[in-house]
Design goal:
heterodimer; A: 387 residues; alpha/beta; Rossmann fold; Cytochrome-c3 Hydrogenase, Chain A, domain 2; 2 domains; 17 helices; B: alpha+beta; three-stranded antiparallel beta sheet; 14% strand; 4 iron, 4 sulfur cluster binding (chain A); hydrogenase (acceptor) (chain A); NiFe_Hase_small_N_sf (chain A); iron-sulfur (chain A)
Chain lengths: 387, 598
């Protein structure tokens, strides 16, 4: 069967794409994956020898924001992903077939590609009352999910619904909405959280799996380290204002207009592991903090139940800039409770001292701000707090 | 007895063959259709079932009302932002918060951006395959395709070589044997009527629109930080404006405004040179397929949206009009009041919820939601394993049945355009008349599947142009020295009354959307949403009135009931969004779920 042997490279060549363009694509792909140019030949080799991998994309209780995010991908373009990288054989949101014709595809792929296809899951199954709160195809979603997962090569849990439960699982979780890894056993589950995840993170994870035929390195929660190992706060371009003790105090105040730190407005960047402050959103245009609103922490487990969004954080040690999600675990959070407030306090104290010394800047004193940030962003503040 | 007449004037015959379409794909969420077709394969009974429910309003209870926009935004990621906007308006209405002019304009820009992107994606990626045969495009002559494209538009991507490349890529894709999202579909179905060249042109634009839609939403990213699910703020918008001062790079500045302006210009061009010409070209081949009118020639409802003047929510300020048309009488546009307990009411006789008295409807301020899943005695199959056929004489959907003064209503772009037309507003009347003239069809043609689809296209064009106007308004306000974006006078809960309640409204791309909130002691006490697809996809009410989906499917001839192309075409014309579903709170705030599976 031709479909079993045709590779991504074959398809691209048949579409009239030159080898030169193909290699350029491989270079861009490896760059997008954070692998560097040395990996481009490996990417090329992988794509030359592998057929398009079947992907089944199921929807449970969800809002379709993950699909909407996926189609925003700028590199690779989603049309190239769907036409040339994967074989998206089932996705309720965009597939042409419906009803019996759609349902039949699930059985066909499960039987003809046993152990070979990727199961992508958007949303989650409600377990309460036998699952009657989600009945696509006339049967509980949990049954479709577990059946399709059993024969999949791997499961991708798209977004916070599939990864953690998300909004329908927020207290009191009326339908007992349950994340995918608690229902699926025996097949590896890779979590790509966020509400939704960033488009290029989604296509990046998928391209990695297709290109290298393996899962990317995961942290102990099952998230790809390449996108989820550092906190938004660690890479935030407003971090110097945090360190300098320059905060937005009210919406649309002078600090807001100058792009000061949003910590006091409830920003959850210091406790959120995601790529927003580096990859950014929608082809790198911006991310929540850059557009003036604090991070909601939407890629974190149970973020809906971690207090009001506009209440400032008082937990978690902010100082492990290089620590990843594995080393800053729940235990560390408990031990370091209150540290971030202390850190902000130290920043403010230091800034006050600077002002007294004539070295800092008051709120809104114009051009002096830039100069004031220099010393404020040095390591002294951090080491002082560490001490 | 298998035949009956509904009070709203439709005949139902539940004899004949029962056909099930589940899942209905190319929509948001989970929808099931069951149809009875007669010996000639004409639909004589239609049953529309929402098959998912999440209970978001129960989850909102006890939360900070300033957070509600983020929760309700997650009702739908396709019409992202519109629930958030409705929510901040509801909370501002309850607390008496007035927003600055710039915040109003930026909100309008964000809502109009959603309209342009969502309508475009709906037409090309959710709806086009009901009209366009992808495989037929392989038989097209690229030269003739180029001639066709150039005859209807000045869009530059129209050379024979361009269409040859697209066709080559499609050919390789089909020949790979891995058809992906086009697998197992209805290619070659006799209900497809476009010549191969029109199909190839449409396939090319399907791909172009997929590339372009991601550009449009960058406007949300500028003002809201991301899309889907940008950020909003009670009292204004979160993005501050700093045009030329220190730190302007950290706010909305000239570069950001230029990005927005440039996207708006490109959006107008794409809609006018690609979407509208395609729509008219495709419609010209289907103009005698006049099925799917349903309720549209009778009852239409719109709450209105996009206030020109901040905090003024009357028709003289709303760019999209508010009003109701009943019984097809276009001479009278009734006033709509979302706070009047006699106007909007929801019924649950055929919904998987229970009321103490199910013969009565409840206004959303008094709304009750107790989930009560139970299928009727004539159900075939078992919900625990698989439902084969539902029993519509009993409860059969997770959607409630909202009614306006007792009437089942259709909402959406067609409703908005007809109401605007009936009010004599030229911005709606002129494009409608021009389109009818272009296609050489009478005004009655509006009330059809194709009319719904055409109205959405015209509205997309209206929205793209309105974006230009709102952007100019923003610049003019900034030029006058006003850069305020948020009113924080009532930000702190200590400034709020002990109890307050309010209504927020928008016109989501799919239709009228309302949120009703009650705040007590700084927390949400009750929150209710009535969403567009609840109006359109509603099950029957106690009187037996059928909703817009069910009405529109009646009398549709099917070539082959096993291949539901014609039915999908009509359902997609509504752009269904099922994740919205409905409510879950009893008056005492206790969740009282009861589940009976018979």
């Amino acid at each position: 069967m031709a479909s079993r042997t045709e590779t991504f490279y074959d398809v691209m060549r048949r579409q009239g794409i030159s080898r030169r363009s193909f290699l350029k694509f491989c270079g861009l792909t490896s760059a997008a994956l954070g692998l560097g140019p040395a990996w481009a030949p490996k990417v090329a080799e992988a794509l030359e020898t592998q057929p398009r991998i079947p992907v089944i994309w199921l929807h449970g209780l969800e809002c379709t924001c993950c699909t909407e995010s996926f189609i925003r991908s700028a590199h690779p373009l989603v049309k190239d992903v769907v036409l040339s990288m994967i074989s998206l054989d089932y996705d309720d949101t965009i597939m042409a077939a419906a009803g019996h014709q759609a349902e039949a595809i699930l059985d066909e792929v499960r039987e003809t590609h046993r152990g070979e296809y990727i199961l992508a899951v958007e949303g989650n199954p409600p377990l309460k009352d036998g699952g009657v709160y989600c009945l696509p195809g006339g049967r509980p979603f949990k049954d479709t999910l577990t059946t399709m997962a059993a024969d999949a090569k791997a499961v991708i849990a798209w977004g916070s619904c599939a990864s953690w439960g998300c909004v329908q699982a927020a207290h009191p979780n009326p339908t007992q909405a349950t994340p995918v890894h608690e229902v699926v056993t025996g097949t590896p589950v890779i979590k790509v959280p966020g509400c939704p995840p960033i488009a290029e993170v989604m296509t990046g994870v998928l391209s990695y799996m297709v290109t290298f035929g393996t899962l990317p390195e995961l942290d102990r929660h099952g998230r790809p380290k390449m996108f989820y190992s550092q906190r938004i706060h660690d890479k935030c371009y407003r971090r110097p204002h945090f360190d300098a003790g320059q905060f937005v105090e009210r919406w649309d105040d002078e600090g807001a207009r100058k792009g000061y730190c949003l910590y006091k407005m409830g920003c959850k960047g210091p406790t959120t592991y995601n790529a927003c402050s580096t990859v950014r959103w929608n082809d790198g245009v911006s991310f929540p903090i850059q557009s003036g609103h604090g991070c909601l922490g939407c890629s974190e487990k149970d973020f809906w139940d971690k207090g009001p969004f506009y209440e400032r954080l008082t937990t978690l040690d902010p100082l492990f800039v290089e620590a990843d999600a594995d080393t800053v675990g729940g235990t560390a959070a408990l031990v370091a409770g209150g540290a971030i407030a202390a850190h902000a306090g130290v920043s403010i104290a230091r800034r006050t001292a600077q002002r007294r010394n004539g070295n800092g800047t008051g709120n809104g004193t114009g051009t002096g701000t830039g100069k004031g940030q220099g010393p404020g962003h040095s390591d002294t503040g951090d080491s002082a707090t560490r001490g | 007895m298998t035949t009956m007449s509904t009070p709203n004037g439709f005949s139902l015959d539940s004899g004949g063959r029962r056909v099930v379409v589940d899942p209905v794909t190319r929509i948001e969420g989970h929808l099931r259709l069951e149809l009875n077709v007669d010996a000639d394969n004409v639909v004589r009974n239609a049953v529309s079932t929402g098959t998912m429910w999440r209970g978001l309003e129960l989850i909102l209870r006890g939360r900070d009302p300033r957070d509600a926009w983020a929760f309700t935004q997650r009702i739908c990621g396709v019409c992202t932002g519109t629930h958030a906007l409705t929510s901040v308006r509801a909370v501002e209405d309850a607390l008496g918060i007035a927003i600055p002019a710039n915040a109003n304009t930026i909100r309008n820009i964000m809502q109009l951006t959603l309209y342009v992107q969502d309508h475009l994606v709906h037409f090309y990626h959710l709806h086009a395959l009901d009209w366009v045969d992808v495989v037929s495009a392989l038989n097209a002559d690229p030269k003739a395709t180029s001639a066709l494209a150039q005859s209807i538009s000045s869009w530059p991507l129209s050379s024979p070589g361009y269409f040859r490349d697209v066709q080559g890529r499609l050919k390789a894709f089909v020949e790979s044997g891995q058809l992906g999202p086009f697998r197992n579909a209805y290619w070659g179905h006799p209900a497809y009527r476009l010549p191969p060249e029109a199909n190839l042109m449409a396939v090319a634009h399907y791909l172009e629109a997929l590339d372009f839609q991601k550009e449009i939403v960058k406007i949300h990213t500028v003002f809201g930080g991301k899309n889907p699910h940008p950020n909003w703020l009670v009292g204004g918008v979160p993005c501050a404006i700093n045009l030329d001062g220190t730190g302007a790079v950290g706010a909305v500045n000239m570069e950001r405004l230029n990005l927005v302006g440039s996207i708006i210009d490109r959006s107008v061009t794409f809609v006018e040179q690609v979407y509208i010409p395609d729509l008219l070209a495709i419609a010209s081949f289907y103009k005698d397929w006049m099925h799917g009118g349903g309720l549209s020639s009778q009852n239409l409802l719109s709450y209105g949206d996009m206030p020109v003047r901040a905090n003024v929510h009357t028709n003289d300020s709303l760019m999209l009009p508010r009003g109701a048309i009943v019984g097809g009488d276009l001479s009278t546009v009734h006033e709509v009041d979302l706070t009047d307990p006699e106007q909007i009411q929801e019924f649950v006789t055929h919904s998987w919820y229970t009321y103490e008295d199910e013969s009565r409807g409840l206004h959303p301020f008094d709304g009750v939601t107790e989930p009560a899943f139970a299928v009727g005695p004539n159900t075939k199959g078992d919900p625990a394993t698989r439902i084969e056929a539902l029993d519509e004489s009993a409860k059969y959907s997770w959607l409630k049945a909202p009614r306006w003064r007792g009437h089942a209503m259709e909402v959406g772009p067609l409703a908005r355009f007809v109401i605007g037309y009936a009010l004599g507003r030229p911005e709606f009347k002129e494009p409608v008349d021009a389109t009818l003239r272009h296609l050489d069809v009478p005004i009655g043609a509006l009330f059809s599947t194709l009319g719904r689809t055409a109205a959405r296209g015209l509205e997309c064009q209206w929205a793209a142009r309105a974006l230009k106007g709102e952007f100019a308004r923003l610049i003019a306000t900034l030029k006058a020295g006003d850069t305020a974006t948020a009113n924080t006078d009532l930000w702190e809960p200590s400034a709020w009354p002990t109890t307050a309640r309010g209504v927020g409204f928008t016109e989501a791309p799919r239709g009228a959307l309302g949120h009703w909130v009650e705040i007590r002691d700084g927390k949400i006490h009750n929150y209710q949403c009535v969403v567009p697809t609840t109006w359109n996809g509603s099950p029957r009410d106690p009187a037996g009135n059928i909703g817009a989906f069910e009405a529109a499917l009646l009398d549709t001839p099917m070539h082959d009931p096993e291949q539901p192309l014609e039915v999908l075409r009509t359902i997609h014309s509504f752009d269904p969004c099922l994740a919205c579903s409905t409510h879950v709170m009893s008056p005492d705030g206790q969740e009282r779920a009861s589940v009976v599976v018979r």
